[in-house]
Structure formats: C-alpha cells, structure tokens
Specification:
Helix 4 crosses helix 7, helix 4 runs parallel beside helix 9 and helix 7 crosses helix 9. Helices cover 51% and strands 6% of the residues. The strands form two sheets. Strands 1-4 form a two-stranded antiparallel ribbon. It has a two-stranded antiparallel ribbon with strand order 2-3. It is mainly α and 246 residues long. The chain is built from eleven helices and four strands. The protein has three domains: 49 residues, no CATH class; 106 residues, AhpD-like, CATH 1.20.1290; 62 residues, Alpha-Beta Plaits, CATH 3.30.70. Strand 2 and strand 3 form a beta hairpin. It is globular and about 50 Å long. The chain starts with 17 loop residues before the first helix and ends with a strand. It holds the Pfam family CMD.
C-alpha cells in the first residue's frame, strides 16, 4: 500500500475560498501543520465549514479538560494508524500537560504504564468506543464520578470526530505540510524487539499476528525525524532505514 502519494492532492492555498483562509488565520494558536488538512477540505467547502465548526467547539469552546482531550485524541490517532494526527498532537503534547513518557504511552498497551485512574478511564473509554462503539458500564461509572454530563457527551463526540479525521486523512494519504525523512522497513530483519514502536509509535506498529514491525506511514513529518533516527539506531536487527529529505 502506497502511503506517500495523496489520492486527492490538497488544494493550493491560492485557490482556497476566503472563508478557509480566515479560519486558518484565526486558529494560528493551534499550531502549524494544518495547511494540507485545510487544502484537502477545500475540495468541499460546505463540508469544510461544518467540519471546522465542530473542531472549533471541541478545541476552544468545550468543557472537557485539555489533558483529557489530548489523551483521547492521541489514543484514537494511534489506534487508527494516523501518523498525521498523532505526530501533530504529540509534538504539542508538552504544552497540553502531558510529559514525553505519557505521550509515548498513549501508543502502547494500557497496562504497560502506571496511568492515573482518571487518565486510564479516558483511555479505556476511547478504546471501547473504537472497538465496540460503546462504553461498558464500569468505565462509564468511573467516568461519571469525575466528568459532568456535558463533558461525557463531549468525550464521545470528540472520539467520533477524531476518528473521522484520522480515517479521512489516512485514506486520502494526506501528507504532512513539510517534507520529512522517508522510512522503510525489512520484516525479514525484524526481531520483534518493539523498540521502534516505543520510540515512534505514530510511525511503527507491531503486527498482532506475528509480532513483526509494520509501517503506518512511510513519509512522516519532519517533527518525527529525531525519533525515526533513534528508532533506526536502536533496532537490534537493523530492520529500519531512514532516508533524509532532500
């Protein structure tokens, strides 16, 4: 599967409708890396308006704590294999109250990290929604002890909206805004150490079937360059090759 060439290339900013430029300008505080997202949505202006309106509510007008929101987004992006979304949010996670270990742990089995109970409730709810489109009673009860009704509804919608974004961008092969290094793997050389997944979970994943590495994206953004180089250096079997962008 080619995860590099976009199936529907983003529209050049010069051809965007004025309303899309205005939204991007007004949301600069959300950080860089959204030009290709907006360019993809520019193919469908009415849909873009609805999409971005919902995103604005969830990001700037919602009642859910920022930490809860980012945990749910990072977990969803990892589970759905969206390096675009995971890398963007991982890059800004420190400003949202997550330390590097916590950020990396959102892409690992939940029982491998000592999560605080409230964090674990959010992550378990996210997994349940992605797996079953439902939240089991015990997790719901735990969430309800801490979150208000409005926040509970918001969490459900957030996971749904993030899933929509991850699926859309992954399926359309929407590229990161800035060229980063390319990465390739050799499953024949992989020894299933899991070092790459721990180092760059938005790019690598271990197969549930054979434990060997699989590639979520072969041209991640430049913000992951250091992690990719480290993953290649740590790989015991030399299964990872990183080619720097020209």
């Amino acid at each position: 599967m080619n995860l590099t060439a976009p199936r529907i290339p983003p529209v050049s900013p010069a051809d965007w409708p004025p309303t899309l430029h205005a939204v991007l300008e007004a949301s600069k505080k959300d950080g860089p890396g959204r030009v290709n997202l907006f360019g993809t949505l520019a193919h469908h202006p009415p849909l873009a308006a609805a999409w971005l309106s919902l995103a604005k509510v969830l990001t700037h007008e919602g009642t859910l704590a920022v930490r809860d929101r980012e945990l749910a987004v990072l977990r969803t992006a990892h589970r759905l294999g969206s390096a675009f979304v995971w890398s963007r949010h991982a890059a800004q996670a420190a400003t949202e109250g997550l330390d590097p270990d916590e950020t990396q742990a959102t892409a690992a089995p939940l029982d491998t990290y000592a999560w605080a109970p409230g964090d674990l409730d959010v992550l378990r709810a996210t997994d349940a929604l992605l797996d079953h489109a439902d939240v089991p009673d015990d997790v719901w009860t735990a969430l309800s002890r801490r979150l208000q009704e409005q926040q509970l509804i918001e969490l459900l919608v957030l996971v749904g909206q993030c899933s929509m974004m991850c699926m859309t961008l992954r399926t359309l092969r929407t590229p990161s805004d800035t060229a980063g290094p390319q990465v390739s793997i050799s499953r024949e050389l992989c020894c299933s150490s899991g070092q790459c997944v721990a180092t760059a979970p938005g790019v690598f994943e271990q197969s549930d079937e054979d434990g060997l590495v699989t590639l979520l994206v072969d041209a991640p953004g430049p913000e992951l360059a250091a992690d990719l180089r480290l993953a290649a250096a740590l790989c015991p079997g030399g299964a990872i090759t990183v080619t720097e962008a020209p």
